[in-house]
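A common beginner's mistake is to predict each chain separately and then try to dock the pieces by hand. The better habit, illustrated here, is to supply every component at once so that their relative placement is modeled jointly.
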Amino acid sequence: MLRFAVRRVLESVLLMLGVLVLVFFLVRLTGDPVSLIVPMDAPTAQREALREIMGLNDPLPVQFWGFMSGAVRGDLGSSLRRRGQANLDIILERLPATVQLALSALAFAVLVAVPLGLAGGMRPGTAVDRLARAVGLAGQTIPSFWLGMLLIVLFAVTLRWLPSFGRDGPASLVLPAVALGFAGMGQLVRLTRSAVLDVRRADYVRTANAKGMSALRVSLRHVLPNVAIPIVSVLGIQFTYLLGGSVYIEVVFAWPGLGSLLENAIRDADFPLVQAITVFISLFAISIHLLTDLAYGMLDPRLRRA
Amino acid sequence: MTRRTVPTLLLTLFAMIVLPLVAQAQGDRLVVSLSSDPTSLFLPRASDRTAHNASLPLYDSLIWINDDLELEPALAESWEISEDGTEYVFHLRRGVTFHNGEPFTAASVVATWETGSDASNDYANFFTAASLVEAIDDYTVRFTTPEPNATFLTTLAFSWGMVPPAYIAEVGLDGFAQAPVGTGAFRFVSRTAGDRILMEANPDYWRAGYPRVAELEFRVIPDASTRMAAVQTGEIHIANRLSPDQAMALERAPGVEVVSYLNDRAYYVGFKNVGAGAGTPLEDPRVRQALNYGSDRFGIINAIFSGQAEPIPGFIIEGNLGYDAATMTPFPYDPERARELLTEAGYPDGFEISMGCPADGYVNINEVCLALQRTLGDIGVEVNVEFRTTNSFWSQPQYGAVGAMFVDSWSSAIGEALPRLEGALVPGNYYTAWEDERFAALVEEITLTVDRDARAALYREMHELMRDDPPFIYLYQPTIFEAVNERVQDYAPRAAEEYYLFQVSLD
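With all components supplied together, the output reads:
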């Protein structure tokens, strides 16, 4: 087990290094941030001075070393645009909004998908099963930003039930959480339904039915615990996806989280901030995967040899 | 029971959604949208129009450009300019205090110049336009410029928000940017990054009777469709930067009024006589005229902008000093004339040329580039459009990364064409890709001419020169669309998308 754990940790570290290298060089392929910061008629001398101050005149290897040595010490540099603010502070300021949105989206997905998938799987071919399949398909095919706009038009503009944007208490969370969680919900409905379809043919379910147990008790006592394992393992992946994948939704709903920050930083060519956000999200995702792998390894000895 | 479980859950969820919780914009709080999160509320670092507009309510300059684009006293009650145009003496208003209680004096003006000139500021050049600022006494300040500068006063009015020296010394520039203090109509209250900026009326404001609302809130809403929705629901009062289609849809919305005005921004195709443009047919003035006659700017405006833009006659456009609608007319679309000129220039079969385009850099710009390719193709000029990401497009001096021609635009916030003339035609400037001594000399003369009427005459001369020997294909100036709640009174955005909110009230 120890060798397995050490190998997985080393692999994660290598992966993280790969991400750092990729991010650093990719953002630099996009051009010179100073030309987007200063006004068009700024004199060349001013551009040069700013480039010098921002360290953009240093040779790439020097900049890269500065970035890497900072990153491993937990220093993600400071923003080009938000002068004097550490990137980590900017990120931590926005993180709660994104975590709140991701958790709400996940809660929405689970609360709708699990009962629906369970009901559909237990009674294949019935109306509720058709509904489950339709919802599953819709969730996986409707683009989330488009759904977001539809929700705004219906619930904010037409019905005036909910705010159209921003982060102003629980009401403002509903539309972005639904829009963001919708795709994950689709995936979960399909997963739950197919898992239930497998489990319901199992001997212990047939036995429970034969004993005269009610359908609900069979679902909750025997089916649900057995389909919970794949669902829970998918939830971890979903959560990291929701954290990183909320860019569109945060922009559409003017949600002040990491996604809208990233969009802003990319548009502003704020290299250090783009790097920092990407590194932060990657670190989070890689850690979750590492923990999942280690947990699997502990639970299932066969994986340790793989 | 299973049958009931699912509907019950769905109903519960629905009931959660149906709670009528929409927050309307509050009574005496003006809520204005911003299309991006301002990088800073410190004017010298407010690096785009959005940040500039969000900062303006906090500050005043010595002078103000009023809604008729005339200079008016603000924190200076009067001023004199020396004979040679290089010294300005301002007599300051007494009894003005900063939001933190610090008195506004000549020392504040000197401190504003010193902090603004810091090389780390985006707009340092607006402050280094003065080579010296000195206090003569507590309420008199003398500015010195290295040479006469036609736009010095407008630059001063536009970007010199006065700052309190003691407070800056205490918190530093970075600290100041976090909690800015000025003399403006509104005081900074709080800011939630990426979300909102809250300000409250300054009760000691020197302009009696202003501001006219108790609170001012900026909300960051990056997506135009969401801004459009939010102004309809009443969550915000002013929604800016809408597309023509969105504005048209809002015409029918109850309680919302659409505001539209021509933007002081010239869109053009720049020719290069340096780099990739040197030695090409573009060096012949007849070819450049032909390309102007052969560009269907009217068709582009109708097809791509639903008619919501104006063709421009040159770089001096509507609203600019020296503009004259009677004598300044756009090149007509005349492919016949274009072909004649090309034949005269020795290119009866046309030629092939490259044109850089900043992909998605401006509204509909990709379509404009492709339309130009087609319309110039009709006169035999085969244009190879090279799309570049905006960042790489503007990354190199003289548009070094792109072809022999390039599509771009240039705005002006001072009611004069000088910034774009200077930026695009004076050799040595970063984006000057057409070098011609005659243009440079005339721009220089305009820069040094402090007298307004004389300057207007020079602008007209400049227009003629740029018409006969065009360094650009002149395209269009767009219409800006905004939507305001019907309660909003006296909102007057400027042609440069700039607005002052101290006059705005809510019914």
